[in-house]
Every structure is written in structure tokens, then in C-alpha cells.
């Protein structure tokens, strides 16, 4: 795992988008794993800008989102399909037929999980998985105690997640209590993981995920098992890290990061 701390949210976001853009330039047929949430809005705005101003070409790319609320129609403005169209897909030249989310209205919940897993496999697997982290340590909607080998399935959300996300609904009581989510095992199958975490409210949980013990109580800690992970933080989110000097040292000296230092 590599940990990169940037001076502010803006440069953390730019670095994240830059890594995604460079990966896409290298492999135009990238299969992205995508996340939603407040943190990612700025990343998607930056990718949209890069598409428009720097001719970043998504025409051959495809995507799989981590999660979707159960019982929510794609047209509902609180659905993650709506979020993705609104923040990203409507602003880049991706073929929407190649963008995938679990179907919130699926009648057979178990079959929907299996269908989604099969679709990821048929696409050749996920090349780059973008992750945020929830205040309870979740990745995707893998709430505490989710198995590290879990696959896409329905998950009951925690009261913490309800408190984190329900203010985003016009009527907070409309937030579903369950969601489809890729499993921790699904996430770990991605060839590369890029996690972005910003803001003081995430400092304690992200330190547990990066430097704490592996535990399904903090499903974000599972990324420690992955051989190709970069975690990008702003100063506020990095406040509780103990190995900070080492992270900065690596970023300053490893040739891989040379072109990213001035972002
Ligand atoms: C949503 C997802 C979640 C979010 C997490 C942080 O697709 O994957 O794990 O990344 O809940 O959300 P924000 O960015 O709103 O703090």
C-alpha cells in the first residue's frame, strides 16, 4: 500500500483524477469500479473537465459501481444511477450502455447479486477500483462484520450510515435501509485500488483502516490485503496517521510519483 498526503482537498482530488486519467490513456478499454458519495463529486467534476479540455477519451471504457439502494428506481434522484449520470456520465463520452450499477428494483435480490458478479467477470474484471470510506469504516456498503470474502449482495445499513447519508435525501426518512453492494471479496479482486479520503471527520477511521489491525469491524482495513493500493488523503484526513514521515518520504523519492508531485 502507498499512502499519499496532499496539502488540501483540491490537490488530493486532482491527484486521484490524474491517476484515473493516466490509467485510461494507457488502456482505453479500462474497466473502472466507481464509488458515489460527497467525496467523489469533485473527482467526477475533474474527470469531466479533463474529458472536455484535455480530450480524455472514455469512449471504449466501461464501469461498475459499488452499490445501489434497494427499492430505488434508477430515475429516482436519490439513486446512485441518477448520481452517476448527473455527476459523471452525462459529462463524458462514455457509452452509457457500458456503465453498470446493481438494479435497485430487482425482484430477486440474490439473483441480482449473482448477475452483477457475472457481468463484472464477463467484462474481464475491474482494472481500477475507486473507493471512499464511510464513517463506520465501510467500503462500498460493506458494513462492519461483512466477510472479507463477500460478493455482491444485499446488505442492511448501519445507523451510522443512515445518519451519514439520509441528509442527502429531501425527506431523510425516504432513505432505504438496505442496499446492494459489491462484496469485500469483489473489491479485492480489482487489479488496482485507489482510495480517496478527505476531511477531519474521517481521520480516525481511515487511520484504523490503513494502520490498524485487519478486522471485519472496519471493512476498509481489507485493502491491506491487496497488492496494488494507493490511498490519497488531504491533511485533515491524515491527522491520525503514525507513519506519516515514511509516506511523505516515499512520495518524494520514488520515481513513480515524480510527475505527480506538483499537482
Ligand atoms: C458509495 C460508497 C461509500 C462511500 C462512503 C463515503 O458508493 O462506496 O462507501 O464512499 O460512504 O461517502 P462520502 O464520500 O459521502 O463521505
Briefly, what is this?
This protein is α/β, with parallel strands linked by helices and 263 residues long. Helix content is 33%, strand content 16%.
**Major sheet:** 7 strands, parallel
Strand order of the largest sheet: 1-10-9-6-2-3-5
| Count of individual domains | 1
Taken from the alpha-carbon principal axes, the silhouette is globular
Helical segment count? 8
Strand content: 15-25%
CATH architecture descriptor text:
3-Layer(aba) Sandwich
Bound molecules: fructose -6-phosphate
Overall pLDDT confidence: 98
- Helix-strand string: EHEHEEHEHEEHEHEHEH
Number of strands: 10
Please bin the fraction of helical residues: 25-40%
Poorly predicted parts: none
Class from helix and strand fractions:
alpha/beta
Beginning-to-end CA distance, first to last residue: 21 Å
Structure description:
The protein is of the alpha/beta class and 263 residues long. The protein has a single domain, classed as Rossmann fold. It contains eight helices and ten strands. The strands form two sheets. It has a seven-stranded parallel sheet with strand order 1-10-9-6-2-3-5. It starts with a strand and ends in a 10-residue tail after the last helix. The model has no long low-confidence stretch (mean pLDDT 98). The site of fructose -6-phosphate has 13 residues, from helix 2.
What descriptors fit this protein?
binds fructose -6-phosphate, alpha/beta, globular, Rossmann fold, about 260 residues
List the topology elements.
Elements: E1 2-6, H1 9-26, E2 31-34, H2 38-53, E3 62-65, E4 67-69, H3 80-87, E5 99-100, H4 109-122, E6 128-131, E7 153-156, H5 159-165, E8 178-181, H6 184-188, E9 192-197, H7 203-211, E10 229-234, H8 244-253
Parallel strand pairs: 1-10, 2-3, 2-6, 3-5, 6-9, 9-10
Antiparallel strand pairs: 4-8, 7-8
Bound molecules: fructose -6-phosphate (F6R).
Amino acid at each position: 500500500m502507498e499512502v499519499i498526503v496532499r496539502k488540501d482537498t483540491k490537490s488530493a482530488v486532482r491527484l486521484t483524477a490524474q491517476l484515473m486519467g493516466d490509467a485510461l490513456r494507457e488502456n482505453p478499454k479500462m474497466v473502472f469500479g466507481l464509488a458515489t458519495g460527497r467525496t467523489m463529486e469533485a473527482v467526477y467534476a475533474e474527470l469531466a473537465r479533463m474529458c472536455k479540455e484535455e480530450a480524455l477519451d472514455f469512449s471504449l471504457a466501461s464501469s461498475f459501481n459499488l452499490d445501489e439502494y434497494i427499492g430505488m428506481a434508477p430515475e429516482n434522484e436519490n439513486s446512485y444511477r441518477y448520481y452517476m449520470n448527473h455527476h459523471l456520465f452525462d459529462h463524458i463520452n462514455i457509452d452509457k450502455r457500458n456503465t453498470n450499477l446493481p438494479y435497485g428494483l430487482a425482484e430477486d435480490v440474490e439473483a441480482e447479486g449473482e448477475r452483477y458478479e457475472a457481468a463484472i467477470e464477463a467484462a474481464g474484471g475491474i482494472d481500477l477500483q475507486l473507493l471512499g470510506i464511510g464513517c463506520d469504516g465501510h467500503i462500498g456498503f460493506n458494513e462492519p462484520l461483512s466477510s472479507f470474502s463477500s460478493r455482491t449482495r444485499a446488505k442492511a445499513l448501519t445507523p451510522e450510515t443512515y445518519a451519514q447519508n439520509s441528509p442527502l435525501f429531501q425527506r431523510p426518512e425516504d432513505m432505504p435501509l438496505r442496499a446492494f453492494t459489491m462484496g469485500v471479496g469483489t473489491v479485492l479482486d480489482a487489479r488496482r485500488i485507489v482510495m480517496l479520503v478527505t476531511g477531519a471527520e474521517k481521520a480516525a477511521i481511515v487511520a484504523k483502516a490503513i494502520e490498524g489491525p485487519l478486522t471485519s469491524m472496519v471493512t476498509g482495513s481489507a485493502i491491506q490485503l491487496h497488492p496494488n493500493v494507493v490511498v490519497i488523503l488531504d491533511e485533515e484526513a491524515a491527522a491520525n496517521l503514525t507513519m506519516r514521515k515514511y509516506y511523505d518520504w516515499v512520495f518524494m523519492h520514488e520515481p513513480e510519483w515524480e510527475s505527480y508531485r506538483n499537482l
